[in-house]
Amino acid sequence: MxxxxxxxxGRLPLGGDNPIVIQTMCNTHTSDIxxxxxxxxxxxxxxxxxxxxxxxxxxxxxxxxxxxxxxxxQGIDTPLVADVHFSSEIAIAAAAVVEKVRINPGxxxxxxxxxxxxxxxxxxxxxxxxxxxxxxLNHGSLGxxxxxxxxxxPLGMKEAAMxxxxxxxxxxxxxxxxxxxxxxxxVMVEAYRLLxxxxxxxxxxxxxxxxxxxxxxxxxxxxxxxxxIATLLKAGIAxxxxxxxxxxxxxxxxxxxxxxxxxSRGSSSEIKxxxxxxxxxxxxxxxxPGLINGEIETIQTGDEYLDDEILQACRKKFYRPEYVAxxxxxxxxxxxxxxxxxxxxxxxxLKGLVIAVMGCIVNGPGEMADADWGxxxxxxxxxxxxxxxxxxxxxxxxxxAIGRLLELIEQxxxxxx
Length: 417
Ligand code: SF4
Known about the structure:
The protein has about 425 residues and is of the alpha/beta class.
């Protein structure tokens, strides 16, 4: 799909024939200015072309301004993106500070007229400051109105995105990037396909940000991201990539860059993956699109583990639990990376279940989409355990929470036996 070029911060072209932009997101608290600056520096040096930081509160807009100033003073001119949920006021304030703002329309006002008014004010500030806007929808956090109309489906995701793109066009605003992420690779690919088709039908050509959200970590996080992103790249859908891993965000960059480097447009970043990453990514890129598109049903690479991982990523086989884990950000309430490893270690026998490990109670429950069980950080070393969308145990001390989760799962399977 041929998209228009938006120029981020007047210097980073995104879309059109330009190289695919490699981006990532800090997992520091934006209020920890020193840590955020240090992470931005290492991400920029490692090859991130665009760096996102979470902005959970109005005071964090000021922190963001200081972070930007310190980076520019060090000669780091990588454009910054404010990641905003829930508050249009924060988005409006951040749009005057950084080069790009990501909003989640599902978090805007429930009343459509009021949401339109909030967006109009945000667009005015974006126009005034030359700020690019990402309309960033996620499976699992669609607004109530859209979910009632279309369900929590790829169609609902597409419809929500198109509605917001039309609202931008109605306000004569075109400096837009759009994304429709999901953790389920089939949902994610279908949503982007529907979006690309709908945009073409309505004469829209906004650049597309692709990514599998809450992909997890290690080989499975890389493979899950690769099969879905490669399917979209093959269909010509992707202008910027973020690979979300529950790891140091530097680790995301070589994976995204390698996927983009296989396209005719190439990658905005030169960073290279390890030999092992190349091995698993090559197989994921080779077989993933055929499996996701339903052209093939199974594969035999000669490496049984790799076959299982690719088949699971494409949802053809569930040989272990499916994990949904957010990458963590400034909202994360506990040591997500260690906890996720521990959850994986202690639940590896629970084949067929979808288990989510989410960093915060603010976005986690909405973002874990179709998980059977959720482990969600509350802050203050406490955890809430979800069964599907329902919180079943609240305020559990962190050191007891995995055990309590396992007990609940066992009780649940015993009651079904
Ligand atoms: S769910 Fe995870 S990545 Fe998303 S806002 Fe919460 S801590 Fe950040």
